[in-house]
Amino acid sequence: MKKILVWAVLLGFSLNVFTPNTAHAAELEESTFIYNLDEGGRQEFSGVTEDGEEILVVVEEVFPEQNTRNSFSLFSVANGNYRISGKKIGQWEASYYVTVSGDRLTRAYAPVTSETTGSFTRTSLALLSNKKASYELVWKYGLLSTTSYLNAILGSSSISITY
């Protein structure tokens, strides 16, 4: 009986020690970049994740000849389409588009991913509300599995990108 108990304890310990490193949404600390809608155009940001990995984020306005601007108002944010892209150096790149219309996010669409190393096991783009879009990226390399987000949150004169 003691041998079974010892083996059970050892097995439980080894499963905890040798489990792949998986980040969960509740454990993630989000960092934020602010895209200024009044400035518009292409704005680039860079940062370092809590794991010490470099991340690059680019937000760019898709110009009027390439999108469907609905209406212009002096009292609303810059209506139009914006491409949001992120890159973890040496791992992956991802992007998607959002449409801003009448102080609301009305659409999140055209998600794209590419891996430098490893592979994506799951990706999910969702328009969570009229102020927030979320692109969840689950990337795996060997036993390492991480979950990253490229979230877009619409403010009064900005789009905040959290990762």
Automatic annotation (TrEMBL):
Q: Which UniProt keywords apply?
A: Signal
Q: Please state the span of the N-terminal signal peptide per the UniProt entry.
A: 1-25
Entries under InterPro entries matching the protein? DUF5626 (IPR040491)
Spans traversing the lipid bilayer: none
Q: Where is the DUF5626 domain?
A: 37-160
Please, which domain of life does this record's source organism belong to?
Answer: Bacteria
Protein known as: DUF5626 domain-containing protein
